Amino acid sequence: DGQAQAAEVICGRAVGAGYRPAFVRGWHLSALWGLGVGLALFLFWLSAGPALIDLITTSQPVRDFSRNYLFLAALTAFTGVLAFVMDGVMSGATLSRLIRNGMVASFLIYMAASYGLEHLFGLSGLWLSLHVFFLVRGAIFWLGVKRHMPCLFPAP
Questions:
Q1: Cα–Cα distances in Å, from 32 out to 29, 38, 60, 75, 133?
Q2: What is residue 58's three-state secondary structure?
Q3: What is the reported pLDDT for 19?
Q4: Half-sphere exposure of residue 95: CA atoms within 13 angstroms, side-chain side
Q5: CB 3.0-4.6 Å disulfide test: which of 28, 40, 80, 121 passes with 125?
Q6: How many angstroms separate the Cα of 100 from the Cα of each of 45, 113, 146?
Q7: What would the pLDDT profile of 97-121 be if each residue is shown by its tens digit?
């Protein structure tokens, strides 16, 4: 979420100043930093996850069950990055209507994915649906910002 807050400030300042290069640079650097941190967190949770699970519970069935889903849980640190960063970019650019509409579309796609994937893969399908939600949300937001660039920075 730190990259999202940074993107909000940087992109908001750029929009306020009417300076497109700063907006694009802030947007892209926030996304790159977010992906780097997301990858690092994914690897951390993947490697430290078993020990952390052992700290949380002494129940062996709970430990075993949790380890079955550790990879999918840890992966959210990476797959959610673009959605969160773009949330910050759009908040800074005051594109609240796009945020609302993108969330509704992402939710509807999530519901369809969860219905199908849960029936096919059980609880793993629900985790996969969460990843679909994050990825679709990030893509919708990214494309939405690209589409709104002429409105944010009109030609002189």
A1: 5, 10, 39, 17, 20
A2: coil
A3: 97
A4: 29
A5: 121
A6: 31, 20, 17
A7: 999 999 999 999 999 999 999 999 9
- Output the six-digit token pair for 139: 């893509």
Q: Which candidate, 39, 73, 122, places its Cα nearest to that of 114?
A: 122
Alpha carbon separation from 57 to 66, 70, 99, 137 (Å, rounded): 10, 15, 38, 34
* Residue at 133: amino acid letter: F
Side-chain half-sphere exposure of 76, counting CA atoms within 13 A: 12
The predicted model scores a pTM of 0.92
Reported as half-sphere exposure (CB side, CA atoms, 13 A), residue 105 has a value of 14
Apex 14 CA angle, 12 and 17, nearest 5: 110
Task: Give me the helices (H) in 2-95, please.
Answer: 2-17, 20-56, 60-68, 70-79, 81-92
Beta-carbon neighbour count of residue 31 at 10 Å?
20
| Whole-angstrom distance, CA of residue 6 vs CA of residue 90 | 12
Residues 6+ apart with CB under 8 A from 102: 137, 140, 141, 144
Nearest to 77 by CA among 26, 6, 11, 2: 2
